[in-house]
Design goal:
The complex is a heterodimer of chains A (127) and B (259). Chain A is mainly α and 127 residues long. Chain A has a single domain, classed as Up-down Bundle (3 helical TM bundles of succinate and fumarate reductases). Chain A has helices at 18-48, 51-62, 64-91, 98-126. Chain A contains 4 helices and no strands. In chain A, 79% of the residues lie in helices and 0% in strands. Chain B contains 8 helices and 8 strands, in the order E-E-E-H-E-E-E-E-E-H-H-H-H-H-H-H. In chain B, 39% of the residues are buried. In chain B, helix 5 (192-203) packs antiparallel against helix 6 (211-218) and helix 5 (192-203) packs across helix 8. Chain B is α/β, with parallel strands linked by helices and 259 residues long. In chain B, 27% of the residues lie in helices and 15% in strands. Chain B folds into 2 domains: 8-127, Roll (Ubiquitin-like (UB roll)); 130-147 and 154-256, Fumarate Reductase Iron-sulfur Protein, Chain B, domain 2. In chain B, a hairpin with a 2-residue loop joins strand 7 and strand 8. A 6-stranded mixed β-sheet of chain B has the order 1-3-2-6-4-5, with helices on one face. A two-stranded antiparallel ribbon of chain B has the order 7-8. Chain B has helices at residues 59-70, 130-138, 158-162, 181-186, 192-203, 211-218, 232-236, 243-256, and strands at 13-18, 27-34, 44-51, 89-92, 95-98, 111-114, 121-123, 126-127. Chain B is elongated and about 70 Å long. Classes of the chains: A mainly alpha (127), B alpha/beta (259). The A-B interface holds A 4-15, 17, 19-20, 23-24, 87, 90-93, 96-98, 101 and B 4, 6-7, 9-10, 12, 33, 35, 37, 42-43, 91, 93-95, 112, 114-122, 127-128, 179, 181, 184, 228-232, 234-235, 242, 244-245, 248-249, 251-252.
């Protein structure tokens, strides 16, 4: 009898709002960043092994898909950084009012896009 | 690990359709989660056409209307109808709240009504809250004072009393806890926003002598730190309280005090 009881719907029906979206994105970007950092480490190790590898990598990074992936990773880093700052402020006990959480959530989302563009432009023009 | 999909016996089927019998021009479709424990069938969504010309303003009024005029077999909890008892907590339009204080005009389109999320359903809109009440009991929500003078009152300054504002008003309707994804995935161990808000309420009570013991008790990876400030709880609370902030305050106390 006990096991027969159904479980009421949860994530399937619950509506999303800015804070929950930022929270889940924080986790997803965290995972992406760990994978990205690992791959970057392998890349740099690979470069040490020879010039041919550098040429191949250069060619690979020049492709459209790579550019898209690079932009994605830059965004992922930007988002994670800003969202982490938001979480740190919350850990200090500030910014829990509903209106404030909406504003800071939006700031994180918009800020991550702006930061992506800035980092990309810096990377293109100065490095 | 979180199970995102519903178990086999819990997937929701399409149910009956109740056409409007009044001939009213002002109709709204109301989709209600139904489950009958006397059958072997899966839960279903019944759709009711409700005449809004003769319906007061709240979602609970719609449910009463359905039960009184269309389908008496519908089961849901309700008592005070004034947002004080917390009985009619349910999920309406994708958000938890009290049916008696949620205006149906706030919900666009068809009105979807479900029981509180991620609970064992007893029948229709009635979820099983036993687990939550056991957790509430586990934080020992009563005054513990070791003072030997039992005949005199325990004085409290206005400042100390003010610390309880925003915590004592909780009616334990479970809207917050059942809105919390962390509580969905770890509800057996994580205490959840409702119970942690009450834990906080007793921790900050100046008349209570067991502050340290209480703090020690909730200082647990699973009991407390499963809160990841998703803030579904604060946005769901029908009394406008802030469980997320209370949880953050407990974390802060544990980080700064010598417990």
């Amino acid at each position: 009898m006990e096991n027969k009881k159904p479980l009421s719907p949860h994530i399937q029906i619950y509506s999303w709002h800015i804070s929950s979206l930022v929270s889940i994105s924080h986790r997803i970007t965290g995972i992406i960043n760990i994978i990205a950092i690992t791959i970057i480490c392998f890349w740099s190790c690979w470069l040490i092994l020879g010039e041919n590898n550098y040429d191949f990598l250069n060619y690979f990074l020049g492709s459209l898909i790579s550019k898209f992936i690079i932009l994605g990773v830059v965004w992922s880093f930007s988002f994670q950084t800003l969202s982490e700052i938001r979480h740190l402020i919350m850990d200090m006990g500030y910014g829990f009012e509903l209106q404030t959480t909406k504003v800071t959530g939006l700031l994180v989302i918009l800020g991550s896009l702006v930061l992506t563009v800035i980092i990309y432009l810096i990377g293109r023009n100065f490095i | 690990m979180a199970q995102i999909s519903l178990p086999k016996n819990s997937t929701v089927n399409k149910g009956k359709y109740y056409k409007d019998q009044t001939g009213s021009k002002n109709i709204r479709k109301v989709n209600v989660y139904r489950w009958d424990p006397s059958t072997e069938e899966n839960p279903r969504i019944d759709t009711y056409e409700v005449d809004m010309d003769n319906c007061p303003s709240k979602v609970l009024d719609i449910l009463n209307k359905i039960k009184n005029e269309i389908d008496p077999s519908l089961a849901y909890r309700r008592s005070c109808a004034h947002g004080v008892c917390g009985s009619c907590a349910m999920n309406m339009g994708g958000k938890n709240g009290l049916a008696c204080t949620t205006p149906h005009t706030e919900i666009d389109g068809e009105i979807d009504i479900y029981p509180l999320p991620h609970l064992k359903v007893k029948r229709d809109l009635i979820g099983d809250l036993d687990g939550l009440y056991k957790q509430y009991q586990s934080i020992e929500p009563w005054l513990k004072n070791n003072s030997s003078k039992e005949s005199t009152e325990i004085f409290q300054s206005k400042e100390d009393r003010a610390k309880l504002d925003g915590a004592y008003e909780c009616i334990m309707c479970a809207c917050c806890s059942t809105s919390c994804p962390s509580y969905w995935w770890n509800g057996d161990k994580y205490l959840g926003p409702a119970v942690l808000l009450q834990a906080y309420r007793w921790i900050v009570d100046s008349r209570d002598d067991e502050r340290k013991a209480r703090l020690k008790k909730v200082a647990d990876e699973l009991k407390l730190y499963r809160c990841h400030t998703i803030l579904n709880c604060t946005s769901a609370c029908p009394k406008g309280l802030n469980p997320a902030k209370a949880i953050a305050e407990i974390k802060k106390m544990l980080a700064t005090a010598n417990v």
